[in-house]
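Sample 3 of the quickstart, ligand 2-oxoglutaric acid:
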Amino acid sequence: MSSGGSMWYMSRPLLSRPPQSASESEVAAVGAFVRQELNEVQRTAVEALEADGIAVFDFVTLFGEELWRDALADVEPFIRETEEATRNVGEQPRSKDELIVRRLFHSPGFRVDGKKPEKPRFSIREPWLKIAASPLLVDIVNSYRGQLTRLYEVDEWFTVPYPRLGERIASQQWHRDPENEHVVKVFVYFTDVDEGAGPFEYVRGSSAGGRYDHLRPWADGYRYVEPVDLDAAVAPEDRLTVTGPRGTTIVCDTGGFHRGGFALTQPRVLTTSTYLPPDTRKRRFKLEYHGEQSSLPPQVRFVLG
Ligand SMILES: O=C(O)CCC(=O)C(=O)O
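Result:
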């Protein structure tokens, strides 16, 4: 795994102006969000999120080539090993674990002493955390939400293709995520994703406050809708299927209806990160800061805090 020191990809040559940093005290006070100045890629993404609940762009246009190369080098062994390990899977997955191989969060299992399993500890030098906690990305998420946010989960998924996959299961079905009315997720494809690789799909305008928020409105707990009901309610132009080359990056309000991972012909590999409101205390991992915490930009310290 790459360990590229404490570079936080604050700027890149094509950016018009770097984002400003919120002051320490603003960040320390939960909810004291100050809108940051955004570059063009960020602004376009926030506008798309506000209009439709989803923004799609190419990774390199936001983060630059260097982080892309680091991330790719980091994920490639996982892709090779998982391809090898899943070469002879059966015709149908027996559970979601056989459908999505998770690199960072393996099934926690049970401990004989009855205690909760330890949370995994990630280094802030890992590429996926540099992506998930980059101020370039965090400022998009925070600007859309109009508040500071906290990173709840990061993971890398290898979705195993099953050519004879019949019924859609779990997140392959249309659903609203339960964590928050406006939970924001970011997905970065690390393989080319066509129709056969189980692309992410979204209903534009289905997040809370959007034109389809009446359709099985958000509530605590997963909200599923039958495809036939969704088809009847949603205009075809509001159905978005995100196919694209590796590097395709999706920022999405998954309180809106979405589904994905119905892979039939080829695997799909992506990183996923989840952002929740500032009062969120739960987090699915621990962090190794290497003594660099105080040098992180304030909104990064907050999102990781
Ligand atoms: O695998 C996908 O594309 C969908 C993921 C999803 O539904 C989720 O993370 O909530």
